[in-house]
TrEMBL record:
Name of the protein: Cysteine protease
PROSITE patterns linked to this entry: THIOL_PROTEASE_ASN (PS00640), THIOL_PROTEASE_CYS (PS00139), THIOL_PROTEASE_HIS (PS00639)
Cathepsin propeptide inhibitor domain: residues covered: 38-95
Biological source species: Zizania palustris (Northern wild rice)
Domain Peptidase C1A papain C-terminal: 133-353
A GO MF label: cysteine-type peptidase activity
Record SMART domains: Inhibitor_I29 (SM00848), Pept_C1 (SM00645)
Lineage: Eukaryota, Viridiplantae, Streptophyta, Embryophyta, Tracheophyta
Signal peptide residues on this chain, from the entry's feature table: 1-21
Transmembrane segments: none
Gene Ontology biological-process entries: proteolysis
Length: 358
């Protein structure tokens, strides 16, 4: 049932805000259809609101966003489609405040264990005496990637990106896919990290190396989306996944491709509000975006679209599984100059090496 107050108020909102065309009955009709659509969206995403005022406010935001999505798609300028998803009742400002900005951008990419920096061709990978990487790679298909997780309202993308690289590296080395604990990193890695205010994936990997491993999510406890007291005592009787070393790669798409052909790699991008409206009907994300990196994600593959011929990265995000393609998305590869689309290679990608446990 639609509360009466909601219909009246939103009607008022529509009439008050529509300056161009349309008779009142048309607006009523439009409003009713939009409200039906909102209710279907709420049901699909299991959303409820504490009271009618909040529901009305969210309906207004939803309506505004749906209109933006439809207008943008009609204009066709993006080359891909925007769509509704779990975030369609958030304003751009709310979205940015909650899900973007979990990375403290810096130019300092040498926070890696002494003696372990290097790998895949300091400069030109083609000069390395190794076979060229395959044309396409998707580590999800090798079952080397856990489902996309949800950082919640906490700027902890740096922990999620780092942990995802360890999960995949551990699988590739040992054939065992485990959910490892972002919460442990968020609670315990306080070495120039800022918790829910942001941090660096390379330092998180460094912490795992320094502390001889990371706990599984099952043993440390579930992710709660806020920083709590670090409890390393839980480690005494629990299984740790260890890493042998932390590596960074040169900041180029060639080097990233070569590294990703071996294992998933954490990178930094500029996330912006167009990403808010990326859903599973969207194609390859092509921006627009700049290169002021503010978000950490993991590249888990790459390929080329058979129809359009557009090259892409397959990227694991930490905005839950209802965003994008089950939490993953495709980003254009080899575009927008030497820093890559959204600055994907403006900083060095990082990954851990995990040894085979004998
Ligand atoms: C994606 O967006 C389109 C257009 O808004 C919508 O029709 C579709 O239901 C959305 N898909 C999901 C899974 O939410
Ligand atoms: C990073 O380096 C660029 C170019 O040297 C500079 O313009 C920018 O201000 C630096 N950013 C930070 C956060 O230090
Ligand atoms: C990891 O956690 C997710 C979400 O709870 C679950 O679906 C998945 O089966 C777990 N394990 C692995 C190995 O992905
Ligand atoms: C998107 O997700 C919806 C709901 O899960 C599904 O019905 C639809 O087939 C999906 N579309 C694509 C293009 O994957």
């Amino acid at each position: 049932m639609v509360p009466l107050a909601l219909l009246q108020l939103s009607c008022f909102f529509l009439l008050a805000s529509s300056s161009a065309g349309g008779s009142a009955p048309d607006n009523d009709q439009h409003n009713r259809l939009m409200l039906d659509r909102f209710h279907r969206w709420m049901a699909f995403h299991g959303r409820s609101y504490p009271n009618d005022d909040e529901k009305l406010r969210r309906f207004e935001v939803y309506r505004h966003n749906v209109e933006y999505i439809e207008r943008t798609n009609r204009d066709g300028g993006l080359g891909y489609q925007l769509g509704e998803n779990d975030f369609t009742d958030l304003t751009s400002e709310e979205f940015a405040a909650r899900y973007i900005g979990g990375l403290i951008a810096n130019n300092d990419s040498k926070v890696i264990s002494e003696g372990y920096v290097a790998d895949v061709g300091k400069n030109d990978p083609s000069k390395l005496k190794i076979p060229p990487p395959p044309k396409k790679v998707d580590w999800r298909k090798e079952h080397a990637v856990t489902p996309a997780k949800d950082q919640g309202k906490c700027g902890s993308c740096w922990a999620f990106a780092a942990v995802a690289t360890v999960e995949s590296a551990h699988y590739i080395a040992n054939g065992k896919l485990l959910n490892l604990s972002e919460q442990e990193i968020l609670d315990c890695d306080r070495n120039d990290q800022y918790g829910c205010e942001g941090g660096f994936p390379d330092r998180a990997l460094q912490w795992i190396w320094d502390y001889d491993g990371i706990m599984t999510e099952d043993s440390y406890g579930p992710y709660v989306g806020e920083q709590q007291a670090c409890d390393l005592s839980r480690r005494a009787y629990n299984y740790l996944v260890t890493i042998e070393s932390v590596w960074s790669i040169p900041a180029s798409e060639e080097a990233l491709k070569l590294a990703v052909s071996r294992q998933p790699v954490a990178v930094t991008i500029e996330a912006n509000v167009n990403m808010q409206f990326y859903n599973n009907t969207s194609g390859i994300y092509t921006g627009p975006c700049a290169t002021l990196v503010n978000h950490a994600v993991v590249v888990v593959g790459y390929g080329r679209d058979a129809v359009s011929g557009v090259d892409y990265w397959i990227v694991k995000n930490s905005w839950g599984s209802k965003w994008g393609h089950n939490g993953f998305f495709l980003m254009r590869r080899g575009a927008d100059g030497p820093r890559g689309l959204c600055g994907i290679v403006s900083t060095q990608g990082v990954y851990p090496l995990v040894s085979v446990i004998l």
